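Late entry, evening session. Most of the bench is empty. Finally got around to the prediction I had been postponing all week. Sequence below, unchanged from the version circulated by S.P.
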Amino acid sequence: MRSPFLIAGLSATLTWFCAVACAQPPAKKAAAPSSPGLSAERLKRLDAFLQKYVDDNQIAGAVALVLRDGSPVYERAVGWSDKEAGRKMRTDTIFRIASQSKAITSTAILALMEEGKVGLTEPVSHFIASFAKTTVAVRGDGGVTMVPARRPITIRDLLTHTAGISYGTEPLVAALYEAKGLGPAAGNGWYTADKTEPICETMERLGTLPFVAQPGESYVYGYNTDILGCVVEKASGMPLDEFIRTRITGPLGMKDTGFFLAPEQRERLATVYSSVADATIVRAPEGSKGQGHYVEGPKKSFAGGAGLVSTARDYARFLEMIRRGGALGGVRILAPRTVDLMTTNQSGVLHSTTGLGFGFGFETVDRYGAKGMSGVGAFGWGGAYGTTYEVDRIGHLVVVLMIQLMPSTTDIQQKFSNVVYQSLLN
């Protein structure tokens, strides 16, 4: 069964789509179609669940979207997009998705792999010269020393975050990274939206800095996917934003997903809030550690690891393509076998020893109970602004929750997932 909001141009579904997409704020919950094995009554528990977080001032607002077999069974905007301006959250509100960008950039790399332009075991130095001889920072009795990497970093290392590359904020390397405009000089390490240079220039410089673990020996979360974004540019001969637009978001109709926003989209961009000591929120400041430069900024650095903005509907459309094995609405983005690679644990126990793995861009659930009620084979991730998502092929689910909270002390993400799963009766 195809999703009514995923298949444009069919008159039978256009009425539903316009009823939601064209509504003026405040947006209301979409009517939930029936779905065998899912209790619509139990799913309604999400209403009170989400509202309580808003009422308790733990989040300003949220957009939640649940698809089953591609059809929306729950969609709601709750709370505020901008409390101070009195602007209510809408289902078409745009969010900074930070590390949810990683799955899209990983898809771009694997599309190039399918064409033979990139190899999984290929050294990154084939695309970025400074990675030919990388080093690792090691702390010893005599202080910090730099030792050569034992082997070249590969594309596979970057996809699984096992290259030993962090965001450069650890004390043993922070000063070196800051001096090169990375780490502490890049917001929280991953932020480049205010940079005036193309991402490949930044990544060339990164290759001259020491990393924090040997390739293939540890799971280290960091600039891995930003490096992959540069590889996309080198292998395809086009800027990352253009490749993603022409090969992924454009064909899928994801019109609200990109690295920066046009001025007319400003009012749809949600405000960022920050958790404070008593677990309530305050408006985040301007700048790289707060609101960012997604509307007014240089618009030159396309950070494949954390730079995209999107809506719940757009991102759900991308995930539905993955859930269906790489194709949606007559458009094929990846082959089914490639999707299986992405969504299967490719890092052994380096990511976790408790039943979670990491594939090519997604965290995977390998043991029931490792992540709440998420089923074995489910996969997902989230972003620094509090957004989160999950795909469960066995449960036929795509689940997206969008908030804007950084830093965050809320537990809404895991509890949200469990409230969704308790509605499944088969």
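Two things to note before I forget:
Residues 1-31 have pLDDT under 50 and may be disordered.
The chain is about 25% helix and 15% strand.
Will write this up properly tomorrow.
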